[in-house]
Amino acid sequence: MADYRIPQVLKRLGILSYSKELADKINRGVLILKGSEEEVEMRANMVWAVQLMYEELKDRMPGILPIEINDHLWLLRRQLFPDDNAHHRTLTTAY
Questions:
Q1: What is the pLDDT of residues 19-64, one digit of tens each?
Q2: 3 catalytic, yes or no?
Q3: Which member of 3, 24, 71, 84 is catalytic?
Q4: What residues does each domain of the chain span?
Q5: Where does residue 74 rank: exposed (0-12), middle (13-18), buried (19+ CB within 10 A)?
């Protein structure tokens, strides 16, 4: 659940926001180092946002799993923002 596209769609939906400095790096395609504070915070906040969505939905949608929310967000990005390429870039095998 650490896809680089999930923070992108959460940002576009107004769920996540970046500092001006980080947003500038992402927009310019600057490499965000694996394990850096910026990369870890981005991934952790994405996981936390999905968890909060899960907490809101689990009683209304019994059996839903956080990974299904993650997958829905991934598909939603493809549907709503197919041409948006402003996502963070990190060289890693963890995604």
A1: 999 999 999 999 999 999 999 888 899 999 999 999 999 999 999 9
A2: yes
A3: 3
A4: 5-80
A5: middle
